[in-house]
Model the fold of this input.
Amino acid sequence: MVDWKRGVRKVLYPAYEARMVRRLERDKLPKHVGVMLDGNRRWAKAVGRDTAHGHRAGAANIEPLLTWCDEIGIEVVTLWLLSTDNLNRPARELEPLLEIIEEAVDSLADQQRWRLHPVGAVDLLPTSTVARLKEAEEATRDVDGMLVNIAVGYGGRREIADAVRSLLLEQSDRGASLEEVARSLDVDDINAHLYTRGQPDPDLVIRTSGEQRLGGFLLWQSAKSEFYFCEAYWPDFRRVDFLRALRAYAQRERRFGN
Done:
């Protein structure tokens, strides 16, 4: 019975997806999509495998997602692969996860299809991970393709703190006093020191696994974003799920925080 259902889905879903794509209004699609790749561990538990297997299954689903985004014409994608909180996990889980992330980033860089840009508190990461992330960024610097932010060791509160710290140090180097900085400080000053400076804010933020919270993802940038929560664990996230998120976004009347 299960195999029969899979066969039916294999036949029907491509036609269903093609119809969804045709009905999407191009002028109502997001330019920047943030994705919280959540649920790898729970997926692994559900299928009776270890945590590392779940993370590898999740890593394998990154390239398909980026391909779907490319097909639609998304300009920027931000992938949250590892939070600052995740860095507190036991070494027996964290070390394999970092290795999986490094391998996934290397694979994306090797394809030369997308420009990779690491975002996060790199000072909290092992030097070997930082080196791999920087190598991937440099290797894809001149690629004429979609910009992909790789959020590793990322936390929204940490990003804002880092932005303020960077701003204060910059102003101090220019000889400005703290009082002068306080009098002139505005939102654009913070924007100019974020990890994603110079990029458009995310129009749409997708979180998988059924959780309905931001958890610290792009706290500053997502103030006016639309959110879509999908029940599927990240390894099970399919093209049809992505298209449904885009359809839901296109059907909304954006109020930009009002």
